Every structure is written in structure tokens, then in C-alpha cells.
Automatic annotation (TrEMBL):
One of its GO terms (molecular function) is translation initiation factor activity. This is Translation initiation factor eIF-2B subunit delta. Keywords: Initiation factor, Protein biosynthesis. It comes from the Archaea.
Length: 287
């Protein structure tokens, strides 16, 4: 299960960073059924596999935090293999519940800020954003939503399909380059987050031009996500994906770059909402 989970995360088959964190953490349960000759061997195996899972995507702060918390709850804390396995099982449950609770509460807080009749724009695919919109409409709001299709992987199409299934959301999808056109129709932008660290807001590629265009047009930007994604001194590494996602035809003498994430100065956004409520943007800057 661990190898399969690593492969899935590296291939970005899991589109939500919260879901990736849960899957990575739950994969460590594989170790409970393995046989070990000593407690030291068990702890070494846990440390090794925790490291492999963290390295499967060095952009996901929630994954990094969840797996690290499990490792810290077990290594050096038990006197026997059965006790260590019991601690591992409990730590996995605690970490998964923390991720899910953080995501749910962040969505609830964000939903409370969405007014009936608002027109929103969102980018790519954020399960927390979608849950916030679902919560708002469940309370009676009728909304309009623009979704950028998020090339080259078109994850915005997945968001658009999910939003369009909600009878209280009028959904429009636009190509990424039409963001300026769409923003003129919008009250605000609602985005998820991969993480915020060292004064930088990391999210899927296309976020930076969207945020800067919104600022130019006076459209406020709200970012929503679990507080586990706010992390100090996290070494974020971008993922440069296969060029075939951009062009299936070879192009002579052309280098194709396909970064997965954008880096946006956090002070460029207007509001950050987590499971703990509003977080002052000034508190997230490095200055």
C-alpha cells in the first residue's frame, strides 16, 4: 500500500492536498501487519517509510505535518513492538482526524462569509473551496461561480462538474487566459491553498496571475485551507511535470516547462481563512 500510495501522490492522481495527506498517513498502517525482530527494527522501518511518504510530494505541507506527527508519536515512545504498533494505529487515527477536522472547519468558516447572490471565481480544484460553497448553498444561498479550467491538466473541469451538480450554483467555466474577462463579473475570488510558508502562498499554477489580475481590478481574494498548511521553515519544492501534458507533439528546439505550482507573495491576497478562523495576512509575511 505504501508503494502504491507514493506512486499515486507522485502522479498527482490525488488532486486535493488534504486527501493526499490522509492517504499518506493511512498508508503507514501497513507496518502494523509486518513482522519485526526488535523494536529498533520497527522504528527504523517507520522512519524510513515516513520519509519516503514525505518525499513523495515535497509541496504538500499538510502531508508533511501529518506524517511527521505520526512518526513523533511513536519513535522513542514505546517499550515493546506491540505497544509501538498500538501507538502507530492511534497516531494515524489522530492525524487523519486532525486533517479532516481542519478541512471541515475551514470550509465552515469560509461558508459563513459567502453571501446570497454572490458571484465567485475559483481556480483549479480545491475540495475545501467546494465544500465551503456546498455549505453556503445548504444554508440557502444562491450563487454564481466562474471556474478557470486550469490547463494543462484541466482540473478546473472537475470543479465545474461538481459545482454544476448543485442546483443553487450557476456555473460558468472559462479558459485560464479569460480570467480578466471573468473577474469583471465577480464579487471575489475564493481559492484553496497548498501551503503558506515564509511569506509565500503556494497553490496550483495559474494562481499568481489570477491574484495579481484580481488586485488590478479591485476584486478581493480569499484563501481557505486547514491551519496545518501554514508552516514555518518548510522547504517547498516545485514539481515540474511531463512536457507531454502541454504538447503531445514534439517541438524541435523548444524546451517546455510545466511547473505544477505558483509562488505568490501572501500579502497579495486579502483574506486567509483556516479552521481557526481568520488569520491576519500580516502575521503570515516575513517582514
Amino acid at each position: 500500500m505504501i508503494d502504491e500510495t507514493v506512486a499515486e501522490i507522485r502522479a498527482m492522481q490525488t488532486h486535493s492536498s488534504s486527501v493526499a495527506a490522509v492517504k499518506a498517513t493511512e498508508a503507514l498502517a501497513d507496518l502494523i501487519d509486518r513482522e519485526y525482530s526488535s523494536l529498533e527494527e520497527f522504528e527504523r522501518d517507520l522512519e524510513h517509510n515516513a520519509g519516503v511518504l514525505r518525499r513523495s510530494d515535497t509541496s504538500h505541507a499538510a502531508l508533511h505535518n501529518a506524517v511527521r506527527d505520526v512518526e513523533r508519536a511513536v519513535v522513542g515512545e514505546a517499550d515493546s513492538i506491540p505497544e509501538a504498533k498500538h501507538r502507530l494505529e492511534a497516531a494515524i487515527d489522530d492525524a487523519v482526524e486532525a486533517v479532516r477536522t481542519g478541512k471541515r472547519r475551514a470550509a465552515e468558516h469560509a461558508a459563513a462569509t459567502i453571501a446570497d447572490g454572490e458571484t465567485l471565481l475559483t481556480h483549479d480544484y480545491s475540495s475545501t473551496v467546494l465544500e465551503a460553497i456546498e455549505n453556503a448553498t445548504a444554508e440557502g444561498a444562491h450563487l454564481s461561480a466562474y471556474v478557470t479550467e486550469a490547463r494543462p491538466r484541466y482540473l478546473g473541469r472537475k470543479s465545474a462538474r461538481e459545482l454544476s451538480a448543485n442546483p443553487r450554483v450557476d456555473t460558468t467555466m472559462v479558459v485560464d487566459s479569460a480570467m480578466g474577462h471573468a473577474l469583471r463579473q465577480c464579487d471575489r475570488v475564493l481559492l484553496g491553498m497548498t501551503c503558506i510558508t515564509d511569506g509565500t502562498y503556494y497553490n496550483r499554477i495559474g494562481t499568481f496571475p489570477l491574484v495579481t489580475t484580481a488586485a488590478e481590478l479591485g476584486v478581493p481574494v480569499t484563501v481557505v485551507g486547514s491551519s496545518a498548511k501554514l508552516i514555518e521553515s518548510f522547504h517547498f519544492e516545485n514539481d515540474f511535470r511531463d512536457s507531454v501534458e502541454v504538447s503531445r507533439e514534439p517541438m524541435a528546439d523548444v524546451t517546455i516547462e510545466n511547473p505544477a505550482y505558483d509562488a505568490t507573495p501572501v500579502e497579495a491576497v486579502d483574506r486567509v481563512i483556516t479552521d481557526e478562523g481568520d488569520v491576519p495576512v500580516d502575521s503570515l509575511t516575513t517582514s
